[in-house]
Amino acid sequence: MAQVPQTFFDALAVRTWCGLALETLGRSREEIDAINVYPVADGDTGTNLYLTVESAVAAVEAVFAGHAAGPEATGGPRAARSGATGSGGPTLADAARAMAHGALIGARGNSGTILAQLLRGMAQVLADGDIAHADGRSLGLALRRAADSARQAVAHPVEGTVLTVASAAADAAGGAEGDCGTVARAAYDGARTALAETPGRLPVLERAGVVDAGGRGLVAVLGALVETFTGEKARSPRRDPHARVPPVEDPAPGDGVLGECAEGAAVAPGEEGPAFEVIYLLEAEDAAVERLRERLDALGDSLVVVGGDGLWNVHVHVDDAGAAVEAGIEAGRPHRIRITHFGAGDVHTTGAERPPRERAERAVVAVVPGEGLAGLYTEAGATTVLARPGEPPASGELVQAVRRAHAREVVLLPNDADLRHTAAAAAEQVRADGIRVALIPTRSAVQGIAALAVHEPDRRFDEDVVSMTSAAGATRYAEVTVAERQSWTMAGICQAGDVLGLIDGDVAVIGSDVAVTAETVLDRMLSAGGEMVTLVLGDDVPDTVAERLESRVRERYLAVDTVLYRGGRQGALLLIGVE
Predict the structure, then answer these.
(1) DSSP alpha helices (H): ranges in 300-409?
(2) Residue 498 φ/ψ region, left for φ over 0, alpha for ψ in the -120 to 50 degree band, beta for the rest
(3) Using CA atoms, how far apart are residues 388 and 416, in angstroms rounded to an integer?
(4) Beta strands 506-511 and 333-341: pairing type?
(5) By the 8 A CB rule, do 317 and 40 touch?
(6) What is the DSSP letter of 332?
(7) Residue 533 and which of 264, 304, 313, 383 are 20 to 30 A apart at CA?
């Protein structure tokens, strides 16, 4: 379907731009991955940019969905907990802030972290004041703020990287006069010219015969911006006749091609460099973050700290990963900590150090809502993807998890009804890699536990999938949570702060006490029979609640067994499964 051009930069334009950028990066992701040349051999710049934009898209879509749901909506538990209010569409400020926040919390790698700061810089201009839309002049100012803030976020900027491309785009946009389409086109052309010149600014790019991968990704994102305002697809940098050094297609393993990270000293295969990449989100005050920058800069290189307003995304390469995390703990509250070892055999090496690991025959990949269940699933042999409250995983994360499982056959457990389509998209993508994937539509982690309990990798794949599907389907699931706002539900009107008992996804009980509500839910579920009750307690639920529920089952349901797990920070207060 043809894209309808946007005259001004409004909320709909933000939404359109994010969607088009995701499509564009999806098409060029592998190409961008293949031309990583600076400064460590990641081979994942395109993927990191895609995942970052995917998170931004999810945040923007959530804002539009929230505004579409008025207080009279009967959206059930999701609506009751979302805090979505009002009707009509979001403002430009709403959409721009959502885009920036989504990119920040979903940023992957150095390239994604810098892109998140670029989007944040734009949002600071677009969300300034209560305007319905921005014109070409405002777009130029937004691109200027984006380039400047991204450069400030990098500890030691290097020319010939995505920072150079962003600055060139801002310079060109600042010199353009006209509507948003004219300014976007000028920014895109300026970025393309700068991208073609990156090999002349970084010798490592020229030796490899490629342009900067992060800059290539930014040009793709700006091309989507042009399409948003003009309806016309921008020319691909791959076919740019003015490019001095064309991107390569697929560098062969071990041929000396380096990797991209946008700043710091290049590290060629065989040279010594920091052993770990450390990334985490950090809740901290500005003053504490300034001290953190100084400490991390002394610990390693490739330091990028982006964000603001109390939430930051920290990226650094170090030899002492523990010290980098401890520095974050001293500064505030770090979470979503990811540590990658730049060691032999991982994606940051050429592959020449040791032969590839043999694929397992079968694996289980599961999305889990808390650290406690992640440990339980891991002990059972599953590869896990952690879904924190309000931060559902994107399809790219599931794809990476399936590839990390390194098996010929994979059983995928989304464990959430809202993740079914995301999981289906991930399954379709990895099937193209020759991996046989079966998606079991589990709607809760307790159904996933039941499926995992009967998993037998020595059986034929189809038989194993049928057995796991049957076990999951035979498990009724419930959760106890707290309503975030007033809403209509299947059980009546709930108020903010009410305790909700959901059975099979629908609100069945509205109460004021966690233990009493949980008992009512449990009684209703067991009235239809059952042999096993699974209880998964969140961090905010005291052990006395579990003891009370276990006693109730022992006293009232003599033939029913109970098993208890601690789920950690899982969103819901309590998960219940009845088999």
Answers:
(1) 321-331, 371-379, 395-405
(2) beta
(3) 12
(4) unpaired
(5) yes
(6) S
(7) 383
